[in-house]
Specification:
The complex is a heterodimer. By secondary structure, chain A is mainly beta. Helices cover 0% and strands 51% of the residues of chain A. In chain A, strand 9 and strand 10 form a beta hairpin. In chain B, the strands form 2 sheets. In chain B, strands 2, 4, 5, 9, 10 and 11 form a 6-stranded mixed sheet that branches. Chain B has a 5-stranded antiparallel sheet with strand order 1-3-8-7-6, with no helix packed on it. The chains are: A mainly beta, B mainly beta.
Chain lengths: 116, 112
């Protein structure tokens, strides 16, 4: 099992501002993942955060808009920059199971962002 | 890329059996997983199929046919608490990072 803590749990932000979301995991993991889930929709992978290297972004997501930090093996941040109402969504961080060959992934409770 | 299709909504009666289908296209298949997500909650792992066939975990079973790029989640003895969204997901080993990509999701409503 794994425990993932995200904060803030929710926020309401003004357009044009930025919000940094923090994610803390309770065991050292090589990779952490950031997802976006728009209301009533599925989870879309934003990027993979490797400790010690730049994040790898999926198609449609860029570093200038979603800069990610990964300073150590248990912590990562995602910043949503220059926000617009279209960024209103739930943002989730995730880790794979620390067990070798275990397919389970674990998720934080998410950050519900509303941009006004 | 990856594409996973699911029915958007399913309604079933308490105590009944329901099947949620998933068809997928992926460049580097590395198993099909199922996740449950209640409103406002985090996705939680339900089941995994790495090989063809049926995997049973209590009231939940999952099936995979790799030749058909198809799987399903079977929920038996439905309970009201099973009302949630269900997602199939594939892990794309082709990226080298074991990224998890999710299906479109099925919202299950269990009625009395």
């Amino acid at each position: 099992s794994a425990v993932i803590s995200q904060k803030p749990s929710r926020d309401i932000c003004q357009r044009g501002t930025s919000l940094t979301i923090q994610c803390q995991v309770d065991s050292q993991v090589t990779m952490m993942f950031w997802y976006r889930q728009q209301p009533g929709q599925s989870l879309t992978l934003i990027a993979t955060a490797n400790q010690g290297s730049e994040a790898t972004y999926e198609s449609g997501f860029v570093i200038d808009k979603f800069p990610i930090s990964r300073p150590n093996l248990t912590f990562s941040t995602l910043t949503v920059s220059n926000m617009s109402p279209e960024d209103s969504s739930i943002y989730l961080c995730s880790q794979n199971s620390p067990g070798q060959g275990n397919p389970e992934a674990f998720f934080g409770q998410g950050t519900r962002l509303t941009v006004v | 890329g990856q594409s996973l299709e699911q029915p958007s909504e399913v309604t079933a009666v308490e105590g009944a059996i329901v099947q949620i289908n998933c068809t997928y296209q992926t460049s580097g298949f590395y198993g099909l997983s199922w996740y449950q997500q209640h409103d406002g909650g985090a996705p939680t792992f339900l089941s995994y199929n790495g090989l063809d066939g049926l995997e049973e975990t209590g009231r939940f079973s999952s099936f995979l046919s790799r030749s058909d790029s198809y799987g399903y989640l079977l929920l038996q003895e439905l309970q009201m608490k099973d009302s949630a969204s269900y997602f199939c997901a594939v892990r794309d080993a082709g990226t080298g990072a074991n990224n998890l990509f999710f299906g479109t999701g099925t919202r299950l409503t269990v009625i009395p």
